[in-house]
Amino acid sequence: MADRVVVLYRGQVVETGTTEEIFAAPRHPSYTRLLMTSVPSIRDEQPPDPRSAAGLARRSARPRLRLRSMEYDMTQNGDHHAPDGLKTRGTVIVVPGRGETRATYARFGSRLAHDAYRVRVVDLPAAGPAFLDALARRLSEAVAGIAAEYPDGLPRPLVLVGADLGAAGLAALLATAAPTAVWWPQAAVLAGLPGNGSRAGGRWEDELDVRTHCPTHRGDLTGDAAVERGALAGPVPQDLLDTAYASTAGIPRLLLAGDADPLADRDAIARAARTLPRARLAVVRGAHHDVLNDLQHRSVAGGAAPDPGTGRPLRWPPAWRTRGAPACRHCRCRGPGGGR
């Protein structure tokens, strides 16, 4: 929420003040108070009766919309649904990386949902000995919750998408869990797998430079109070990385790495891609550590979408190019696939 509020009427400033002052005690005798009664209320008490004023049409004091019971958390809302009237083409479950929240993947989730996929972003468990068990539980809960929404159960194919520590966790789970697990996917997308001992330090601006050069995403990260600044400064547990890179599960995997990612061990990722029976490495040119949320986010999201027929991601190109890319209509940054 903004720190200060400016109230305009017919092009003229009628009141200014801090957010707390304006909402607690609007000073303008008519317009500000009348304006505030038109805001939907989530409280049960009756709104104050506005005064009539010269030059203003008399209006009812009763709001047009009243919400008597609502649970709402914008930051942690990680659900994205296919448009009404379209058959859901599949399910995508996203596991964020270090320091990130569900809101970090709102743009990514919305992009996939627009193409008729059911998307849910889960919380990344705390690092520690119980990390993989906690991650498996969250995946199982997500699958069960989405399956309950549909008469025929979970829309498949199911694709798991992980970023940074989330990607390492998914890779390690695929190496250790049984294919009978309720969350076992038809494909996986592992984005920004960290290398051994990789970490980022310095100021917040330095961490942003490591993460992304997309101005909109940088603003989203900075404006989200739940984002843990400095999270990339801590190392990823070595045993988790060893398990992740040793995985040999046969499901299709798309490994995404930015060629400008200072935390990636591209040699290790390339070896993993060669070792895995069904894997493809895509190096995204110009992308940084948050490869799903950098300037190339629209093309990357399109490549991560599952093919309903095969279950694997739709596009398996060797690289995405940024040269000459149109502006993205969603956030006005410049990246491949801008505009729809």
Automatic annotation (TrEMBL):
<keyword id="KW-0378">Hydrolase</keyword>
<dbReference type="GO" id="GO:0015833">
    <property type="term" value="P:peptide transport"/>
</dbReference>
<protein>
    <submittedName>
        <fullName>Alpha-beta hydrolase superfamily lysophospholipase</fullName>
    </submittedName>
</protein>
<feature type="region of interest" description="Disordered">
    <location>
        <begin position="39"/>
        <end position="60"/>
    </location>
</feature>
<dbReference type="GO" id="GO:0005524">
    <property type="term" value="F:ATP binding"/>
</dbReference>
<dbReference type="InterPro" id="IPR027417">
    <property type="entry name" value="P-loop_NTPase"/>
</dbReference>
<dbReference type="InterPro" id="IPR013563">
    <property type="entry name" value="Oligopep_ABC_C"/>
</dbReference>
<feature type="domain" description="Oligopeptide/dipeptide ABC transporter C-terminal">
    <location>
        <begin position="14"/>
        <end position="47"/>
    </location>
</feature>
<dbReference type="Pfam" id="PF08352">
    <property type="entry name" value="oligo_HPY"/>
</dbReference>
<keyword id="KW-0813">Transport</keyword>
<keyword id="KW-0547">Nucleotide-binding</keyword>
<dbReference type="GO" id="GO:0016787">
    <property type="term" value="F:hydrolase activity"/>
</dbReference>
<dbReference type="InterPro" id="IPR029058">
    <property type="entry name" value="AB_hydrolase_fold"/>
</dbReference>
<keyword id="KW-0067">ATP-binding</keyword>
